[in-house]
Structure formats: structure tokens, C-alpha cells
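Ex. 9. Protein: Superoxide dismutase.
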Amino acid sequence: MTFTLPPLPYAYEALGPYMSKETLEYHHDKHHQAYVTNGNNAIKGTEFEGKSLEEIVKGSFGKNPAVFNNAGQHFNHIHFWSWMKPNGGGSKLPGRLEKKIDEDLGGFEKFKADFAAAGVGQFGSGWCWLSVKNGKLEISKTPNGENPLVHGATPILGCDVWEHSYYIDYRNRRPDYLKAFVDSLINWDYVDELYGKAI
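Predicted C-alpha cells for Superoxide dismutase:
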């Protein structure tokens, strides 16, 4: 397949004041576009031409860093834009997801604290995740463009903790960025949609 940059599902200023127009312009138009361009160049003439994005991510992990890094980040960012929405967050979750978070993660408030802690605790660039593995929800963190797909899990929520995701708006205050993400940006309907496909 050929990678293409998807448009943002909202206006550039729609996530303010938590994520600025300037951040989205840099992050989406420059950084994500670079993963698309570099990924397309990296897969030319390889065994990954013509495969789905998930197949490329799983198949290139540990074998072809140039393909994996760009394909992984393209996968992560396609979902990242949809994991956020204007007036997101809140405490009203879809019922089945709320029940599962209570069962597997000790409740919503504990989930929020543990998810943010995973992002804060990721040294350097990377992501924090909520995934489904063996029928259970789990929180994890990964370096760089790695994601739970390569560890046998299905990601249903992720937050980008590379500096370009937050430095314009929060400088070095990664905990404040993660708090804003969890409290005010998450598109829980999309998380629930992915959860439904994963179970």
C-alpha cells in the first residue's frame, strides 16, 4: 500500500486551549507528513509493498528499522488524531468500556492516573497506551514509534509523548500535557469503537 496523510478530523484550532493550532500544524502537516513520505520511500522494492499497514508494522518490527519506524508512526498518528476531539474527555464513558476499566484497571480515576504515569515515565520519545491483550485491558508504554501491535496486543487509546506533541504548548511540562489529554481531549466514542473491534 501507499501511505497517505489523512486530513485532521477537526479544524486546527478545535482542540484549544489544550492543543494549539500551531502544534497541530507542525505535528500533523510536518511530522506526520514526514512519516508518510519516508515510509513510502522505505517500502519501495521491499517485501512490504502492497501489504496492509498493520502487516507492515508487525512484519518489519526488528527486521527493517526504516520501514518500521515510519510505518509504526504512521499507524500511531492515524489513530492519534481520532483519539482526540473538541470537548473530549469527561467522566461519561460508554457503558461496556466503563465496566471493563472498572474490572481490569481498578476504576476510571485509577486508569487516568496510571495512564498518565506511563506517559510521564516513558524516558525520551514514545507513547503510552491502553490496549486489549488476551481479552483484558492493560496500560503500557513504548519507545519511539513502537506500539502494542508488535507485542500481541490491540491498541485502543494512545498518547504521543514525543516533544513535538506538547513542547509548543507545555514546554517541558509533560505531566500537564498528559493531564489535559486525559481530562479534556479523549474521544471515548472512538476508543469504544476500537474496543468493540478488539473483543
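Check your answer against this statement. The longest helix spans residues 21-43.
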